[in-house]
Amino acid sequence: MNAEPYIQIEGITKSYDEVTPIKDVSLSVYKGEFFSLLGRSGCGKTTLLRVLAGFEEVTSGRILIDGIDITNLPAYKRPVNMMFQSYALFPHMTVYQNIAFGLKQDGLGKSAIDDRVKEMLSLVQLDGFGDRKPDQLSGGQRQRVALARTLAKRPKLILLDEPLTALDKRLREETQFELVNIQEKVGITFILVTHDQEEAMTMSTRMAVMEDGKIRQVGVPHDVYEFPNSRYVAEFIGSINLFDGITVEQGTDYVLIETPEIECRCHATHTGTLPLGSNVTLAIRPEKIMISSTRPEQAYNWTKGIVQEIAYLGDVSIYYVKLDSGKMVLATLPNLLRLTDRSFQWEDTVYLFWRSENSLVLTA
Fold this sequence. Notes:
By secondary structure, the chain is of the alpha+beta class. It folds into 2 domains: 7-234, P-loop containing nucleotide triphosphate hydrolases (Rossmann fold, 3-Layer(aba) Sandwich), CATH 3.40.50.300; 239-362, CATH 2.40.50.140. It has helices spanning 45-53, 95-105, 110-123, 139-152, 169-186, 197-203, 221-226, 231-236; strands at residues 7-16, 19-29, 34-38, 60-65, 68-69, 80-83, 157-161, 189-194, 206-211, 214-219, 241-250, 254-258, 266-269, 279-284, 290-292, 302-312, 316-323, 328-334, 349-353, 360-362. Strands 6-7-8-3-9-10 form a 6-stranded mixed sheet, with helices on both faces. Helix 2 crosses helix 3, helix 2 runs parallel beside helix 4 and helix 3 packs across helix 4 (139-152). The longest helix is centred in the middle third of the chain and has 18 residues, at 169-186. The mean pLDDT is 90.
């Protein structure tokens, strides 16, 4: 991370009449990164990708790739290739011809094209598929052909617009690792647009969470998940329990919070300075919460409720527990043993408790 940024987005704004989908966005991406833009529909992530590709002109700001300003370059002159969500394969062409298309447009010789296409087919594990048409391939195979075509011109940057959406869950999970492995082999910088948090966290070296045309947080997946910088990011990345309260005591490495939704005070690890009486939000991930049929001995960080719903997901079960205050809290427990009798059933009274270091204090 001491290297110079490879892709620099500096103060980019894009407006359409009265709509501004991108608002003064600045972002640095490093060479060889697998970077993800993550956010809900309409947050501006796809527009930003299209601006990078050259399909949209910017209203203000500039874009640099490897130190060269490409802001005003047309799409066909940029060292950028884009893989579309629909794959956009030519149905009348064979796999070989699809991959070779861009190389022919660039004027490469027949021998060089043949070598490059064979190299790409081997890279995406489609040796022997060159003579097939797209309609003779599975969804996963078409996705790999589209990737091979994107890689064939050896661009400096590859843009991926939700490329795994059309695949079923199991194939999508397998393809995520295939994409990462291919990206590591070729060493090209990838920028992925997705609304799938699991996909972004699995594949990314770093990720940016967007909202309303702005970037809310940038970081490695672990940091964004464990240390969200705002309530919006905390709610968007994974499931989380949020409790509004005020600070009543401050130490060098902790803060005590009172919330009307929990009967006891909450003790949270926190090194920042907060004036007493500050309005804060206590955030706790469901997998950090433990469940017991008896009241825990700890003075802080516990509450009582009744199990309202149980969602069995195979590897884990999610318990929806309604507190006396009416607040619904989620707790996730791993199913370590084959399920015969549940430890907790519907309508059981249970106690929830958690550690101070698993409590996150949000001020934004």
